[in-house]
Structure formats: structure tokens, C-alpha cells
Amino acid sequence: MRRWVILLATFLMSTIAACSIEPDASPRDVPQEQRNIFSERETGGEAAGSNTIYLLGERDIDETQRLRSVSRDVPTTPTAVLNSLFAGPNAEERDEQLDTALPADLELLSARTVGLVLTVDLVDAFGEMTSDGLGLAVAQIVSTATRLAGVQAVQLWIDGEPRVWPLGNGELTDRPLTVYDYPGLIDSTQPAYPAIPSR
């Protein structure tokens, strides 16, 4: 009887060990059919691609227009991601009332990283913009660029020269910009916290 108990215990332990999940020894690619299970957007079509750009969400008369993240299937380089941003929303995104504050003739001259700062050199296409529109446009660029690995701040230049740019509070600065300079502009996909129950 004791021998059967030992054999049964050994069998059960080996079965449990065989069913345990072992960590991967090195990074691996996720199979295509398992990608994008969770979309970054609350509404709209299925996300496509592993990179993110920020467009303007639907305009609400009573609230500040916010940025919404959308996915793009482009190479993970500053040049490719920013050019995708500058191309604006696609037809499906326009149907969802997404837009851009960036001028249609905006062009990227160069994008290079030094340390954690990405310097983005652009053609001068912002001349006719209002201060609010310029603030949203800069927030789109900064929010998009800082989603790239290794980029924490963005220095914007025009035709090879640094310029001053508006922060979220309307002040001007010539220092590198971060997403924290534009608080409350990015639309959160997190659900609202439940109300504290009353007694």
C-alpha cells in the first residue's frame, strides 16, 4: 500500500511540474494572431501597428480639445513615426471625428537623438496658426515623439534654428519639451474611478 502511495505522489508531482509555466530565457516575438488583443482606443476600429501617434479628438464646445492615441504600422524610428503623424488622420479616423492641428505643408527636415532628447527640425509652416492651435500642434509632436523608446524630451527647431514654443499653460519656452508640459491634454483610456460610497 505504501509503495502505491509513493508512486502516486511521484506521478502527481511530475505532472504538476510538467504543467508549470517556465519563463522565457530570452525575448521572443509575439505571434501575429496574438498581437493587438487590447486596443489603445476606447472606440473606433481595430488598432493597426505597434507605434503610436496622437491626433485631436472630437471637438466639444464646453471642453478643451484633447489628444487621442492611434496606432500606426510604420518602422519604429523618429522619422517614420513623425512623418506618419504629419500625414494626418486616415479616412476611418476622420469618420470618427479625429483631426490634426498640424499644418498640411509641415515637413520634417531631420530628427536626431542626443541622450534622451530628440531634436526635431521642421520647415516653417506654423506662421498662420493661432496660439491655441500652435499649442495643440506642439503637444501632438511632443506626445508622439516621447512614445518612442529612449526619448523623454523633444527640442523643436525651425530650419536649423531653435525657437520658443507654447507650453500647456500658454507660457513660452525654448527648453526641451515633455508631455508633462501639456497636462490634461491627452485623453485617458482609463475608466473613471468609482465614486466613494456614502454612509
Write a brief caption for the model.
The chain has 199 residues and is α+β, with helices and mostly antiparallel strands. It contains four helices and eight strands. The strands form three sheets. Strands 3-4-5-6 form a four-stranded mixed sheet. It has a two-stranded antiparallel sheet with strand order 1-2. A two-stranded antiparallel ribbon has the order 7-8.
Features:
4-stranded mixed beta sheet, elongated, 24% helix, alpha+beta, 8 strands, two-stranded antiparallel sheet, 199 residues, single chain
Helix content: 10-25%
Oligomer: single chain
| Low-confidence segments | 34-47, 189-193
Spatial order of the strands in the main sheet?
A: 3-4-5-6
Strand-residue proportion: 15-25%
* Secondary structure tally, helices: 4
Order of helices and strands: HEEHHEEHEEEE
* Total number of strands: 8
Please identify the structural class as seen in this structure: alpha+beta
Shape: elongated
Characterize the main sheet: 4 strands, mixed
- The end-to-end distance, rounded to whole angstroms, is 61 Å
Please state the average pLDDT score: 80
User: From the alpha-carbon coordinates, what is the Rg to the nearest angstrom?
Assistant: 24 Å
Q: Would you write up a description of this structure?
A:
There is one protein chain. This protein is of the alpha+beta class. It has a domain at 46-181. It is built from four helices and eight strands. The chain has helices spanning 2-19, 78-86, 91-95, 131-145; strands at 51-56, 67-72, 108-114, 117-122, 153-158, 161-162, 165-166, 172-173. The strands form three sheets. It has a four-stranded mixed beta sheet with strand order 3-4-5-6. Helix 4 (131-145) links the parallel strand 4 (117-122) and strand 5 (153-158). The radius of gyration is 24 Å and the shape is elongated. Residues 34-47 and 189-193 have low confidence and may be disordered.
